[in-house]
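Budget justification, computational time. The allocation requested in the original proposal was used primarily to generate structure tokens for proteins on the priority list. As evidence of use, we reproduce two of the resulting records. The first is shown immediately below.
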Amino acid sequence: MRIFAVQINSCGTYMLDTLITSRTRLRLLVKFFINAANRGHMRGLAEEFNESTNAIRKELNNLSEAGYLEKKAEQNRVSYRANIQHPLFGALQNIVHKYLGLDRIVETVLERMGDVQQVVVTGDYAQGRDSGVIEVTIVGPALNADYLEQLAPKVEDLIGRQVRFTLSNKKVKEGLILFQQ
């Protein structure tokens, strides 16, 4: 297994943060729409985002009232998740993926990496945490590691985040699958 780190500059192609001016709302959209399996509750999200519960409550209420999030009472707290039945779910998920540059990572990796069987986001981003480091595992029997080392400048121009690539021979079972053959 080989790991490559790529430092990305902060001038990403998709500036969703200029359209959505609430930092909290943007972080919630990333949390819930990067991976439909992600869930959260108000206090946990407040701790994760280092925000006040009032700010989180306001945005969760707005997103729930608009139908983008589903609320479910579980014991003494309310759990939230993306409403996959919402007509804009796919579009919002696509926008979040573009905002993070995940679509560009897949395009660039598949271009000349060899026999790619799987491209998977693992770590914080797979769980919806916008930590600044996207961990990507590329799975295949004979991958072009030399190309991956040259990939840094290309990816740097495409997205505004740090990316850590890992090469593997074994399929990844956990994470956000971006490509699978």
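The second record produced under the same allocation is shown here.
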Amino acid sequence: MTQTITRGIKALLQEANREIETMSVADVKAAVARGEAILVDIRDPRELEREGKIPGSFSCTRGMLEFWIDPESPYAKPVFQENKLFIFHCASGSRSALAAKTAQDMGLKPVAHLGGGFKAWRDAGEAVENVEPKAKS
């Protein structure tokens, strides 16, 4: 039997983009520089090692997002309890739109995402730092 998907990725992204703020590279850079925002990188470790990261960004893989946001979770991270604007980003902006919507739906606020993601940041000539692979034990 074939699955019937009633709300595909296009619908989910349209909904997310209607409900969350999308910020430009310049606006993200300014908000972070003013100390008003935390930039949350939701890419996986392989992406970080391959492409680098935005200096000062906080890494949280998409798969742990809900667990790290919820203060009742045993995996909760204090960074998500700060009174800041949380700006999510991924490689190109799709996963971060969904992540920002999920965070907002959980009650985290304010939230936004970086339009165009890490690619937009890099293409704008902004700083990128290398991420070294973690040593295997």
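A brief technical remark on that second record: Strands lie at 21-23, 37-41, 58-59, 85-89, 111-114.
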